Amino acid sequence: MLHLFESITEDTVTVLETTVKLKVFSEHLTSYTCFLRKILPYQLKSLEEECESSLCTAALRARNLELHNDMKKITAVFEKLHVYISLIVLPSIKPDGLLRTNYSSVFTHIAAGLHGFHNVMKEISKHYSQKAALEHELPTATQKLITTNDCILSSIVALTNGAGKIASFFSNNLDHFTASLSYGPKGGTEFISPLSAECMLQYKKKAVAYMKSLKKPCSDSVPYEKALANRRVLLSSTESREGLAQQV
């Protein structure tokens, strides 16, 4: 996302056809989603085994079951976001892959997915905080466990706050996103091709360079009032010279 942000400058027109860096982000998100899907069974199994332990109290077992459900939800949220982000990448790699009439719906689903992500993180934060408090009360709790829980909780809180900011920003600017995503005929149903978008950017840069070349600094000139005074002196000198010539 940082690389995508750095690729957006005032010298470019940023539309879906030109955000080629979004494809790279989508690929990384795909890898991460696959990773979440791969480790999910291990996360669930770990919580299940913990519940079967003789040291696990009824309250701790309840928190573990809540986290068991949360792990499924967070994986599902990332899979949903991955699907819709893959769709908005299509215009930059496959012009006919997404109709212009559909991008409003796609972005609406992304906004909903981000809010879902924030809600799941709030649940994880609450449940893990309760789980950590219960574990700290156990007589077998070690300092390493307490330190690890504190570290995980701080990361969860930071992620929850970040997810909230992203979801709010995206929803507040949803109308702007859906209204300024593409260039092309108003009555059209498809995006312009990436090649056309690239040409458009090149012509825009040429136009900017031409406009800059027109804005040449003006050469130094005599102020208007001083020019008038000089003209009066010149006329006076000319008249005096002509008068003397006639007298001679």
TrEMBL record:
* GO CC annotations, alphabetized: early endosome; membrane
Where is each Protein phosphatase 1 regulatory subunit 21 six-helix bundle domain found?
1-189
Any one Pfam family here would be PPP1R21_helical
Source species, domain of life: Eukaryota
Could you tell me which PANTHER family the record lists for this protein?
A: PROTEIN PHOSPHATASE 1 REGULATORY SUBUNIT 21 (PTHR21448:SF0), SMOOTH MUSCLE MYOSIN HEAVY CHAIN-RELATED (PTHR21448)
What name does UniProt use for this protein?
Protein phosphatase 1 regulatory subunit 21
Q: Which classification does the entry list for the species?
A: Eukaryota, Metazoa, Chordata, Craniata, Vertebrata
